[in-house]
Amino acid sequence: MPASALRLQNALKHYEGTIDEIITALGPDDLAKLLTDWPLWARPDQLPISVCDPKANWKTWLMLGGRGAGKTRAGAEWIRYNALGLDPVADIPAKRIALVGPTLGEARAVMVEGVSGLLGVHPRCQMPKFLSSQNKLIWPNGTIAQLFSAEDPDSLRGPQFDIAWCDELAKWRYLKETWDMLQFGLRMGDHPRVLVTTTPRPVALLKQLLDDKTNLVSRASTYDNKAFLAASFLKQIDAQYAGTRLGRQEINGELIEDNPDALFSRDVIEKLRVHKTPPLERIVVAVDPPTTSKKLSNACGIICAGLGDDGHAYVLDDATVPKAKPLAWAKKAIALYEARQADMLVVEVNQGGEMVTTILNEVDASVPVKSVHASRGKHLRAEPVAALYEQGRVCHVGGFPALEDEMCSFEQTTKHGRKSPDRVDALVWALTDLLLKPNASKPRISIL
Fold first, then answer.
1. What CA–CA distance (Å, rounded) separates 274 from 265?
2. How many Å apart are CA 302 and CA 423, to the nearest integer?
3. What is the pTM (predicted TM-score) of this model?
4. Which end of the chain is more exposed for a tag (fewer CB within 10 A), N or C?
5. Residues 413 and 261: beta-carbon distance below 8 Å
6. How many C-beta atoms lie closer than 10 Å to residue 96's C-beta?
7. 58, 50 in Cβ contact below 8 A?
8. Residue 54 CB: number of other CB atoms within 10 A?
9. Per-residue pLDDT tens over the stretch 14-68
10. What local confidence, expressed as pLDDT, does residue 88 receive?
11. 278 CB-contact burial (10 Å; exposed 0-12 / middle 13-18 / buried 19+)
12. Residue 359 and residue 185: Cα distance in Å, rounded?
């Protein structure tokens, strides 16, 4: 019999009668305890091994799962039990907790205020107070949790913690820098620990953590949590993604390595990743607009890149807009142009023709727009850019998970039905303008 069933049996063994009679006999206090007893209701993959073995000597717990697999609920409950010092997860309350998300907005929206976030899993008597202006939660017993963003690794320099919860680690822009700063801060209590909840991507740090046999690893698929997901959602993702590489990653929670037929290599991208740029001589924002804004239309690829005074190109931003109307993506592209003080917009006009430049002019006619027309297929245009990466001439400033996933699944031959690589296409236009035009700068140093 599963441990959860035994716990429920023990809790109810002195009650007899129908469900309604049992609920009435339990009373509000006992019923509340049952409903908030996470180890009773959780799946085994949503619990650390220490629930079964309190002496387990792990420091990092990796919970890898598909979309909607219950990772957030598991993370929030683990924090609740540690913050309050509840058996069987914790012996004493943690004093200081780090909550790290891809951005502060995502950390707040998912880890704190989400349906399965911290404010949603606490009963009223245990509820922490959320000081939104300070990005901080304070429990009635004095435990404090602070929110941090993986876009600002230095914010973790100085504070110290007993435990940490890192959400969607594979999406973090400054992954290694943020992780390293967090490790230096995990220095309070007898046994500092960290939980990582993420849909896996084959990024270097995640593979390194998985290779460390002292770490605890649990896995879950979207289907494991189907009782709490809309049937229409499950039907849709099964029809569209079952059996595909993307489905194996985003639904089954598998760590899928690079496609060997892809033009771009994740190892090469990783070697060229930097945290900051040298002085930039030119900056462009490249746009690959969709043909329509309908439900099944492509995204609008928007990539910003700059040319350094060392002759190398630096990818600065991925501001791609999914299924946006023309005015929306035009405003997004021009906002990025202004924020980066770019030199021009490079816009593909194959699909929209004059309409594309007309829309941009309606938003801001003062922005210089360079129209480009594709006379060759996407793969042929991308091959010289892939060679630039192999030569060590392109660096990514931080991480761009969605862009890099698309790059490392972009095959050299087109397959029927494959989704258009909109981010890659915009990237190709930006880097072509910076490095492959007749007047493009030549490299003065080699990184690789």
1. 16
2. 7
3. 0.78
4. N
5. yes
6. 19
7. yes
8. 12
9. 556 666 666 666 667 766 777 788 988 899 999 987 655 655 678 999 999 999 9
10. 87
11. middle
12. 49
The answer on pLDDT for 439 being more than 60 is no
Crossing angle between the packed helical segments 204-211 and 175-185, to the nearest 10 degrees? 50
DSSP string, 66-112: -TTSSHHHHHHHHHHHHHHT-TTT-SS--SEEEEEESSHHHIIIIII
- Indicate if the pLDDT at residue 183 is higher than 90: yes
For residue 405, the model assigns a pLDDT of 87
The number of residues in the chain equals: 448
- Tokens matching residue 320: 């791609």
Q: Do 399 and 174 form a contact (C-beta atoms < 8 A)?
A: yes
Q: For the chain, what are the domain ranges?
A: 36-248, 266-436
Longest CA pairwise span in the chain (Å): 85
Confidence of residue 82 (pLDDT cuts 50, 70, 90): very high
3-state secondary structure of 51: helix
Q: Which CATH class is domain 266-436?
A: alpha beta
Element (H, E) at 433: none
Q: What is the mean pLDDT of the chain?
A: 85
Q: What is residue 166's predicted lDDT score, i.e. its pLDDT? A: 98
283 membership: H or E segment, kind and range: strand 280-288
Per-residue pLDDT, averaged over 347-367, amounts to 79
Tokens representing residue 132 in the block:
């939104």
Do the first three CATH levels of 36-248 and 266-436 match, i.e. the same topology?
Answer: no
**What residue type is assigned to position 446 of the chain?**
S
Q: Which pairing describes strands 301-308 and 280-288: parallel, antiparallel, or unpaired?
A: antiparallel
Choose among 237, 204, 210: nearest CA to 69: 237
Say if CB 224 and CB 45 are below 8 A apart.
Answer: yes
Residue 282 Cα distances to 53, 181, 304, angstroms: 58, 32, 11
Token pair belonging to 445: 């140093």
Count H helices, E strands: the chain?
16, 14
Neighbours of 256 (CB within 10 A): 19
- Taking only the tens place, the pLDDT of each residue in 375-430 is 677 778 888 999 999 999 999 999 998 899 889 887 654 444 445 688 999 999 99
Return the CATH fold of 36-248: Rossmann fold (3.40.50)
Give the distance, in angstroms, between the CA of residue 144 and the centroid of all CA atoms in the same chain.
25
